[in-house]
Structures are given as C-alpha cells and as structure tokens.
Amino acid sequence: MADRTHNEIENSGNGRHSDRLDSPKRHFVNYDIINCQERVWDNFEDFTKTFRKDIDQKLSELESPEYLFIKFLYSCEASKFLINGEWFPRAIHNFSNDTGIPLENITFTSGNLKFKESYDRWHSLYVPNDKKFNCEYYNFGIWLYSKGHVHHDKLVYSSDPIDIKRSFRFNCLNANMLKHRQVFMLKLFESGILTQTFLNNNITSFHYWHDVDNMFPLPEKLLEMLPIQYDLKGDWQQVFDQIFHIETDMNGTDFNKTGDYRYIYDRSYITITTESGECHGNLDVCNDEKLDNYFRPFHRETFLTEKSTRPMLNLHPQIIYSGAGTLEYYKEKGFKTFSNYWNEDYDNEENGERKLQMIIDLINELNNKHIDEIHEMYWDMMPILKHNQKHLINMDLKYQ
Predict the structure, then answer these.
(1) In sequence order, what DSSP letters do the residues of 60-85 get, joined into one string?
(2) Cis peptide bond prior to 311, omega within 30° of 0
(3) What's the rounded Cα separation, in Å, for the pair 138 and 152?
(4) At 306, is the secondary structure helix, strand, or coil?
(5) Distance CA 254, CA 246 (A)
(6) What is the pTM assigned to this prediction?
(7) 138 near 71, Cβ under 8 Å?
(8) Residue 182 in contact with residue 190, Cβ under 8 Å?
(9) Helix, strand, coil shares of the chain as percentages rounded to 5?
(10) pLDDT along the chain (400 residues), means of 10
C-alpha cells in the first residue's frame, strides 16, 4: 500500500472559494503516490482507496465535502497506467462521485508535460458531462538544479570552459534501454551512422544486452557491436543496477543525478538527448493491441528529466529526442535553443517516424562537419549557453 504520511494545511478561506468566509476551516491534504507498492502500469494501486480512511476521517470533521481539497502527486516517469482496467483518471472521477468531494477540489500533479492534454482528450471521449479535476506539471529536471534545492550549493559544473579543441563532437549516453532508445539505436545503424568511426569520434553508449528486452529484430552486425559502453561496464543487469543505485556523499548529495559529469561535457561539443518519456507515434508501449488502441486516441507522454537540463547546466547545446513541443516548452520557460545553428523543426513533428528521421538527418549533417567548424560554432553559441546555465540555476525550487 502507499505511504499514508501526508501534509496537511488549514486555511480559513483565502483564495479559491473565498466566498465561504463564514465556513469552517478548509482542509488541504497532499498525498504522494510514488510510494505505492503496486505500481505495475497495467495494474496500478487504486490510490483513492489507499488513503480512504484518512479522507473519511477528514470528511467527518468537516461541515461539507466541499471544504476538503486534495492533491495527488506522482512525479515519476509515465502517466499511462491502469486502475481496474481503465486509465486512472476514471478512479479519481469515481472517487469524487462517491465522496462528494468536487472534482475541482482535486489536483493531480504529474511529471508528464502532456498530462493535461491527455486528460482533456480522455475527458471528451469518456466523461464529457463531468467537471474536471485540476492538472499540474512537475519538471524533475528543472527542480533538480534549481535555486533552493538541497544540492544546489554542491553542484559541480563548468562555468568557464577552457577554449581548447575537444576530442568528441557528440555525447549520447543510453543506459536504460527503453523502447524508443532501441528504435533510435536501430535507426542510427540503418542510416550508416552507427559505425566504429562514429564510436571513435563520439562519446556513445547503448547498453543493450542480447538476451534482454529483445523488442525489435536487430541485424546480426549490430548485435555483434553490442553492448556499446562508455562509463558503465558489465552485463545488462550490472549496468542496470548501477543506473538505479543512488550514491550519496556525507552531505547527502545524490551523485546519481548531481555529480561531476565534466569528464563528458568538457570533452564533447553537443549532447544528443534521448529523454525518458515515450515519443508518441513511434511505437506502442503496451504490447497489447487492444490497450494500444485504447490509449492511442488520447494519451501523450513527455517526461523531462536531468537528461535535458544537465546539458544546460554544463554549457551544452543539444538535440532532444522526446515528445513534440519539448523545445517549445523550454523556450516558454525562458531558455534559448539553437535554431540559428541547425533546423529544429523536428520538435514540432508528432509523427514518430518522421520525427526520428529528421533527427537522424540532423545528426548526420553535424557529424559530417569538420571538427574545426564544430568548435567555432560551439564558441559562437556561448552567450546562449551561458544564458541557459544562469537561468536554470537561478530558477525557483517550485518552478513548474
């Protein structure tokens, strides 16, 4: 079961629904469902029932369910999970109907940038006559490096890189071989880019082990190259254990995310980021035709992590393989991108196959440039890179 510890806030009527100034104190309760024991995507724990005793106790203390405000937080990857065979918003709607707590008093905070878009689509298809609960977005990557974070004064990065010619054009590290990363790897190979020369000239890893997660048929020549390893070594399970082992120093700094990565960034010019969330349209993730057909009309997933903000921290331009609108989102939040240096139209493409081909073409274009040209371009970008770094580390902790 999920952890029943939660935060409570009492408020006497300021803010939303402030017309009820003579009402009993309103109650605000936050529940973090990351601690659910059952978090298998196709059989997720019904968190509305997990906390039901706590909620019923609160309701018994209030004059009306209208005075209870609930926030559910789930900051992990993915919002594609089922409760009793349906997408989880159905459980929240059922919970509202059962308890009398208005949907507009309920907030779900997701790590999926496209959660509200997905919820609005689902709502129009399945419960168009219901009201809606509130949707919030939580950007883990921004939170991790932002001002006020517990690790902020311990961050290690290059604020003034040395103007020397670097050894590598790109870094592109793929530790946890999710499906879209496997598709990306296969496309690199089929396009003639993933060669030994490419591996010699770039910091690259694809920790694909032959007998694990063999989701796509791979050519024998590609299988002979795998796993391609850089800083993590061992078989698939050993690498996987390293990925998810959180190492901390005596001050509690999480070096799994905030450690010293200058040995990668200071030796290369450009980061190719394969983000954590699915790239919708490129593949179906359920391995079940019925469920894929269920999710396809409404669900979109874009989960942004340190994979796209750590390059900003370390003065790197990047090509981001993620959901459509990722670059647009970062620009809306005050960051600058690199459309003056290469074509970023791939960010607007929702068709996964076309999007991936656009990214592959861009990688090929940059890979064919002379290293001196890459060096000159990188230093011409420095005002943008400095801006992004400063903007990131000066953001408020709760920036969303």
Answers:
(1) HHSS-GGGEEEEEEE-SS----EETT
(2) no
(3) 18
(4) helix
(5) 6
(6) 0.87
(7) no
(8) no
(9) 40, 15, 45
(10) 46 43 73 83 90 93 94 86 95 98 97 94 98 94 87 87 91 88 93 95 88 74 91 80 65 65 95 81 64 89 92 97 94 97 95 92 96 97 97 79
The SS3 assignment for 146 reads coil
CA 382, 385, 389, 394 torsion-angle sign: positive
CA distances from 327 to 88, 264, 320 (A): 28, 23, 8
Residue 358 CA to residue 349 CA, distance in Å, equals 9
CA distance 172 to 163: 22
Question: pLDDT value at position 149?
Answer: 83
Enter the tokens of residue 259. Answer: 């450690």
The residue assigned the tokens 């978090």 is: 39
Q: Which of 240, 259, 239 is nearest to 251 (CA)?
A: 259
For residue 240, the model assigns a pLDDT of 76
Distance, in Å, from the CA atom of 177 to the CA atom of 232, rounded to the nearest integer, reads 13
Answer yes or no: are the C-beta atoms of 395 and 147 closer than 8 Å.
yes
Question: Distance between CA 171 and CA 159 in Å, rounded?
Answer: 19
Residue partners of 225: CB distance under 8 A and separation at least 6: 194
Return the ∠ at Cα 354 (arms to 352 and 358), rounded to 5°.
115
